[in-house]
Amino acid sequence: MRPFFETLDYCGSAPASAAAHAAASSATSMTTVMEGTGQFPIGMGPSQVIPHRPRLTPLRPAIVLCFFLYALQSRGVQLYPTTKEVTDSPAQDVLRGSAKLSLTSLKSNSIEAIIFGQGSSSWNEAYFAGHQTPSSGPDDTYYGLHVSMDVYVHELKRGQLSSTTFWIFHDGDGNTSSLNSIQVGWHIHPDHYGDSHPHFYTSWTRDGDATTGCLNMECPGFIKVSGAVIAPGDTIHPVDHVPGVPIQNITLRVNKDKKSGDWWVYYGFNNIPAGVGYFPKSLFNYLAKKATRVAFGAYVSSKKGSPTPPMGSGAHPNGGMGRAASFTDLRFIDKDGNSSPIMADLPKTITNEKCHSITPIDHANCLYGGPGGCIR
Hints:
Mean pLDDT is about 75; it is low at about 1-60 and about 70-125. The strands form 2 sheets. Strands 1, 3, 7, 8, 9, 10, 12, 13, 15 and 16 form a 10-stranded antiparallel β-sheet that branches. A 6-stranded antiparallel β-sheet has the order 6-5-4-11-2-14. Helix 2 packs across helix 4. The longest helix is centred in the N-terminal third of the chain and has 15 residues, at about 60-75. The protein is globular, with a radius of gyration of 19 Å. The protein is of the alpha+beta class. A hairpin with a 6-residue loop joins strand 8 and strand 9. It is built from 6 helices and 16 strands. The chain has helices at about 15-30, 60-75, 90-95, 95-105, 110-115, 190-195, and strands at about 35, 125-130, 145-150, 160-170, 180-190, 200-205, 225, 250-255, 265-270, 275-280, 295-300, 325-335, 340, 350, 355-360, 365-370.
């Protein structure tokens, strides 16, 4: 996804005094202990120091999904809680038809560059399986999501990516360039880390991934707190993929703190999640107030003409609990930090059900995954 960096004040039309006040507030809030590359220079907040970020070519499939979902919603298309098989690449779906009309009208003819970057002659082949909340307009309000998910190990090759994740969105003013999002999950990403281990990761943007945001702490953004049990980018271990070995599980929670307005990230390995850091409110414009949509699911990608890797455990959802990967204890979080289980099904998007799929939500749980091996 060309989508996440450069020095940019997204308070845009806000009065200079308001921007100065926001920067001062941000600097004050940064007096807590900060570690890693997420630390800001003394006296400066994240809205002030945003260097040009590295290209996120390997993460493009996730942004493709963001734009795909965004385009459908912005065109008024409702995804009902039934299986919708997308018979071709979501990337191509975004680049043509109603989705293309929606996005190109917002971003001229640069949508190809936004999603894939310039000169992409061998675009990645991406497959998605996930649920998202329906969008009825700017009055939709969400303050967080709580999810428990299995973690698996697969031997992936360079050019392959497998991720299980969730997103917190605000659709902004309806223009692609105003999309705010936070993404948290785990992935196996040999091109990025040089190994085939599962890694905990985060990412963010405040302009539809046009110029702002990054993966993990590779730019000013996510603030890791002192004593955190894990940092974005760290390997999740121990995790085995051996029959008979207990499945490892992580519980992730992202919610907007009522007092500070920051988006806090919680992580637990086979345990109750604890706070590991936060995305400062000052990073965002629209998400500074609330989210209008959340989504969760998984995606895999591979180089064009190469087979896709396994999604989840590598088993289809019809394999049942214990074989297929699962999302459990799915919960919405309200503005006071209270959570409630997601009991009703949500609309879902599936790229190709023969390769990867996801079941309806049943009492705050669902299964997903697939063996991979699909080639386009």
